[in-house]
Design brief:
- It is a single chain.
- The protein is an alpha/beta fold.
- Among the domains are: about 70 residues, Oligo-1,6-glucosidase, Domain 2 (Oligo-1,6-glucosidase, domain 2, Alpha-Beta Complex), CATH 3.90.400; about 80 residues, Golgi alpha-mannosidase II (Immunoglobulin-like), CATH 2.60.40.1180.
- It has 23 helices and 24 strands.
- Strand 15 and strand 16 form a beta hairpin.
- Helix 1 runs parallel beside helix 3 and helix 2 packs antiparallel against helix 3.
- The two termini are about 40 Å apart.
- Bound molecules: alpha-D-glucopyranose.
- The site of alpha-D-glucopyranose has 10 residues, from loops.
């Protein structure tokens, strides 16, 4: 499957000839872009076999129409970013993720908070799902009824465009979710399909009886075994009341789209181009791993997913080159790099991908106080394309699933199953001596897998420390929060601050009183912003002040370190201290060694090791984070305090 599809040489010429005459300059500009990205488009569309050619023509028509409707400010952004293709990869990038209503009420309210975001150094804002969902339970907005309307209580499309403009003026890019694996059961396509209307029936994967579903289920995992077991749902009204099974990987009300149908491709591309013209800069491709189904497999990570994304991205770049794609592929570490592109897809699929493995390994290492597993797991996968960036994060709106491979665990003498079970016990607070206060999400007794919900602050020990009224424990929790943020800010890529983590918001139990939310404890870590607590952020005597200043400091130090550009990888290194994670970055601007003490005790790293890795002698070691030159003790080692984070380079070199 991983061989190049043959793209006929004249195929791009034929597409160029099809371009409308939106003015001679426009046609020429589009023709240049089509020659640049057309081959990727055609290579991706090859999965549609004899429907590929016709689909390519439809795509060019969509591009032409979208380009004609692209407003001047966005066209200018296109040109600016074409000249600076790494605009999202520099060390000046900082992301922030929030729900519109929980952060600021409405889209207009968000516009009023841009100043707050800029204070934190934010240059990239991900607004959680805001397109019109179904009514009732909607999986946090991931069951979209209408891609072309904003959820009415949040505002309108015009408000969204206004917000995008306001963000752009302040140098902030806007990210929205694109839920392309499924739509709400109430989406027009789904209701038309139930009525038996073509072409909509073929937008979904449906079966008259259990034969097909049973055959697939044999190899399929379950995403929500607790509240949505199985991957298929019985729809009584299907086929004039005869009923049918519809593929529903997530909840019964989220119907998987049939991406083997090129009509679905064209529909979703049209949605992307429409939203791009509203001013969206980055699309978070939700649940992207699930798009292509193949009998006998887990129906995740199939190579066709990467073809589809390559074609979507190529088409989007032709119409709106300012736009980038971010993969939400919460998959095994070895499957992740393909979402940024490996083999013939290298550098041609998503521009950014969540580094799920880094997030998981950080929590795992913090619980065990050992860096070995993280070091091994992070060193495993192949390098990412230099043009791409990781999105690094400590927490997001989802649970933490323990994506620790059996092979990695085994190499350290651990059992994968036992270690994963330990992590859930630790972070649910059941484990003796644990500092965390989280909750188990989706325990699956068959596989013994379970996941964890909880805010960063609660999982890092702040909730328990405050409840105990113990200042020392509070200090330790605050140090852990800083440490985890330091890793995601130092790793390279776009560090994502999850709303409220900058002021230490704790678990929020209020979801329990909303029947639409109560079943899903991921709402525990989707709190409402406390502007009253945020108001304390400038007071260094408060906890909020300390935490906020820490994140802000990381953003400021990072922005001044060109060596943190995403093009360079952070490579885990053994620094001869079991409790210290060492990450090494080699960049022409100077080497940087990051040392993260994962334990509540002092750790010693041999001086020669540090000096060797940054290429200096003892007199030339500088910690960019504290702004001082650490010195070795009489034993020739550098001594890191509990939970310390150091970004060490040579003085005067920007690292
Ligand atoms: C993604 C979202 C998650 C949602 C799922 C289904 O994983 O992050 O919140 O439940 O997709 O859309």
């Amino acid at each position: 499957m991983d061989t190049d599809p043959v793209v006929r040489e004249d195929a791009v010429d034929l597409l160029v000839a099809r371009l409308g005459d939106g003015g001679p300059d426009d046609a020429q500009l589009l023709a240049r872009r089509l020659r640049r990205w057309g081959p990727d488009l055609l290579a991706g569309l090859a999965i549609y076999g004899d429907r590929a050619g016709h689909t390519a023509e439809r795509v060019v028509d969509l591009i032409t129409a979208a380009f004609a409707g692209r407003r001047p400010a966005l066209r200018e952004l296109d040109e600016t970013r074409l000249l600076r293709p790494d605009w999202f990869a520099g060390p000046d990038q900082v992301g922030y993720v929030c729900y519109v209503d929980r952060f600021a009420g409405t889209l207009r309210g968000v516009a009023d908070r841009i100043g707050y975001l800029r204070e934190l150094g934010v240059s990239y804002l991900h607004l959680m799902p805001l397109l019109e969902p179904r009514s009732g339970p909607d999986d946090g907005g991931y069951a979209v009824r209408d891609f072309r309307r904003v959820r009415p209580d949040l505002g309108t499309m015009a408000d969204l465009a206004g917000l995008a403009d306001a963000l752009h003026e302040q140098g902030v890019a806007l990210t929205l979710d694109l839920v392309l694996n499924h739509v709400a059961a109430e989406h027009d396509w789904a209701t038309a399909a139930v009525r038996g209307e073509q072409p909509y029936r073929d937008y979904f994967l449906h079966f008259p009886d259990r034969t097909g579903p049973d055959a697939y289920e044999a190899a399929l995992p379950q995403v929500f075994p607790d509240f949505a077991p199985g991957n298929f749902s019985w729809v009584p009204g299907w086929d004039g009341g005869r009923g049918g099974w519809v593929w529903t990987t997530f909840n019964t009300f989220q119907w998987d789209l049939n991406w083997a149908n090129p009509d679905v491709f064209c529909e979703l591309l049209d949605v992307i181009l429409t939203l791009a013209n509203v001013g969206v800069d980055c699309f978070r491709l939700d649940a992207i791993a699930f798009l292509w189904k193949r009998l006998g497999t887990s129906c995740q990570n199939q190579p066709e997913v990467h073809d589809i994304v390559m074609a979507l991205r190529a088409a989007t770049r032709i119409a709106a080159p300012a736009v980038i794609f971010k993969a939400e592929a919460i998959v095994a570490p070895e499957a992740l790099p393909a979402y940024l592109g490996t083999g013939r897809h290298a550098g041609k699929v998503c521009d950014v991908a969540y580094h799920n493995s880094l997030m998981v390994q950080l929590w795992s290492a913090l619980a065990s106080g050992e860096a070995g597993l993280a070091r091994r797991a992070l060193a495993g996968p192949p390098p990412k394309p230099v043009t791409c960036a990781w999105a690094t994060y400590v927490r997001c709106h989802d649970d933490i699933g323990w994506a620790v491979s059996d092979a990695d665990a085994g190499a350290l003498g651990l059992s994968g199953v036992e270690h994963r079970a330990f992590l859930s016990q630790f972070y649910s607070g059941e484990f003796d001596g644990s500092f965390a206060k989280g909750q188990v999400f989706q325990a699956n007794p068959q596989t013994r897998d379970s996941r964890i919900s909880g805010t960063l602050a609660s999982l890092a020990g702040l909730e328990a420390a405050l409840a105990a009224g113990d200042g020392q424990l509070v200090d330790l929790a605050a140090a852990r929060i800083f440490l985890l943020h330091a890793v995601i800010f130092g790793y390279g890529g776009i560090p994502l601050i999850y709303m409220g983590d900058e002021i230490g918001l704790l678990n929020d139990q209020s979801y329990l009183s909303d029947p639409d939310l109560a079943d899903d404890n991921r709402w525990l870590h989707r709190p409402w912003m406390s502007w009253q607590r945020a108001g304390l952020r400038h007071d260094p005597g408060t906890l909020e002040g300390r935490l906020f200043a820490g994140v802000r400091h990381l953003a400021q130090v990072r922005a001044a370190l060109p060596g943190l550009h995403a093009a360079v990888e952070s490579v885990p290194v053994d620094v001869e201290a079991a409790g210290v994670l060492g990450l090494h970055r080699r960049h022409p601007a100077g080497a940087l060694l990051q040392l993260y003490n994962l334990t509540p005790t002092w750790q010693r790293v041999p001086g020669w090791k540090v000096e060797q890795l940054i290429g200096t002698g003892p007199a030339g070691v500088w910690d960019h984070l504290s702004g001082v030159a650490p010195t070795t003790g009489s034993d020739g080692g550098y001594h890191l305090p509990p939970y310390a984070a150091w970004w060490v380079g040579r003085p005067g070199t920007p690292g």
